[in-house]
Amino acid sequence: MIDFFRNLLSSDSFMPHGHCFLWDPGVLWLTVASDALIALSYYAIPLVLFLFIRKKKNLPFAWMFFLFCVFILLCGTTHVLDVWTVWDPAYRLLGLVKAATALVSIATAVLLIPLIPKALALRSPEELEAKNQELQKEIVERDRVKKLLDQSNKELQQFAYIASHDLQEPLRMVSSYVQLLQKKYKGKLDSDADEYIEFASDGARRMGNLINDLLAYSRLESQAKEFRLVDGENIFRNSLRDLQAAIKESGAVVTHDPLPRVMGDDVQLESLFQNLIGNAIKYRGKKTPQIHVSVEMKPGEWVFSVRDNGIGIDPGYFGRIFVIFQRLHARHEYSGTGIGLAVCKKIVERHGGRIWVESEPGKGATFYFTIPEVGA
Ligand code: ADP
């Protein structure tokens, strides 16, 4: 190794380059001064480039800048050696450094070629600025539309609330007078009259259900409770309270996995379970309802599911059933107002989750919803 370096620096019988200039001071110092200046600039450029690469984060093609640094440093070194060989003929070393410079220059040139189309595709600062301004405008426009939408949603909700609330009173009046008519005149007028009164009474009852459901829907925001840590087991148990009659009548078997504690509004979560389990009983078909509530931990969230063995749903209607007033069955087949699943969706979304269904006609349905994990 030592021999190799000694050999590199040995000048053997070569003559110093100064001989070529016949040691003419004018030519010699002009060449030496020029080479020295070129070498200095060549060393300064990579230094500035290196500082730039370190400061500039996410610089595209940073490795190419490094390659440039090495290439320019080597170029500078050849000029230093040009000065050196004026007095000391270390031509072997000069040759070696020039060979290294050649290799790095070729590599830089070859690697530069495929980079050109990519570099051309990079946007100029002006283009980026224009795009940025375009995006800013879009954000402002979106904010404006969102504000309008929020406002109109609020007004709609208020309207639904006031309308359903104010309709309750006249409806109560209609219902009680129809009931009075039924009590007082049933069997005393002709059979047509009995039938008409029955229709009126049924209509008033359905309207009452619709108004109550609409009120419950519009209250989801206005009467929402603060979230707190609630026990899934309690929620599930309480949700079955109002379903006892339906469970008894249908012989439904409702089972469940151990349920976790979640952050939420217990009243709304009970209503969510009640709607889903109530539907699983209602849309049961001919089989005895087997309903199972399970839960699975996924990253950052709990995925709850309510599975039944009922009539199932055609996948073409999966999106529609979560829209308010959308029903897939006529009133005489299954009673209902078409608000239940819209309520479920709103509750789940208020809790930061998603709701969806998987099903095939005749093969039961499984409703899934997610609730973020506590602390997630
Ligand atoms: P409603 O039950 O009052 O009609 P929902 O919003 O609760 O309103 O449900 C919308 C529709 O989704 C129902 O009309 C029914 O066709 C369908 N559906 C809901 N749950 C089930 C279920 N478990 N099995 C089959 N169909 C269902």
What brief labels describe this structure?
376 residues, alpha+beta, Helix Hairpins, Heat Shock Protein 90, 3 domains, 5-stranded mixed beta sheet, two-stranded antiparallel sheet, 10 helices, 7 strands, rod-shaped, binds adenosine-5'-diphosphate
Please give a structural write-up:
With 376 residues, the chain is an alpha+beta fold. It has 3 domains: 2-121, no CATH class; 124-223, Orthogonal Bundle (Helix Hairpins), CATH 1.10.287; 228-372, Histidine kinase-like ATPase, C-terminal domain (Heat Shock Protein 90). It is 62% helix and 11% strand. The chain has helices spanning 2-9, 25-55, 62-87, 91-121, 125-185, 191-222, 232-241, 244-250, 266-282, 340-350, and strands spanning 228-231, 253-256, 261-264, 290-298, 301-307, 355-359, 365-372. The strands form 2 sheets. A 5-stranded mixed sheet has the order 2-4-5-7-6. The chain has a two-stranded antiparallel ribbon with strand order 1-3. Bound molecules: adenosine-5'-diphosphate.
Task: Provide a short characterization of the protein structure.
The chain is 62% helix and 11% strand. The protein contains ten helices and seven strands. Adenosine-5'-diphosphate binds at residues 279-280, 283, 308, 310-313, 321, 327-329, 336-342, 365.
Element layout with pairings:
Elements: H1 2-9, H2 25-55, H3 62-87, H4 91-121, H5 125-185, H6 191-222, E1 228-231, H7 232-241, H8 244-250, E2 253-256, E3 261-264, H9 266-282, E4 290-298, E5 301-307, H10 340-350, E6 355-359, E7 365-372
Parallel strand pairs: 2-4
Antiparallel strand pairs: 1-3, 4-5, 5-7, 6-7
Helix pairs in contact: 2-3, 3-4, 5-6, 6-10, 7-9, 9-10
The structure holds adenosine-5'-diphosphate.
Adenosine-5'-diphosphate binds at residues 279-280, 283, 308, 310-313, 321, 327-329, 336-342, 365.
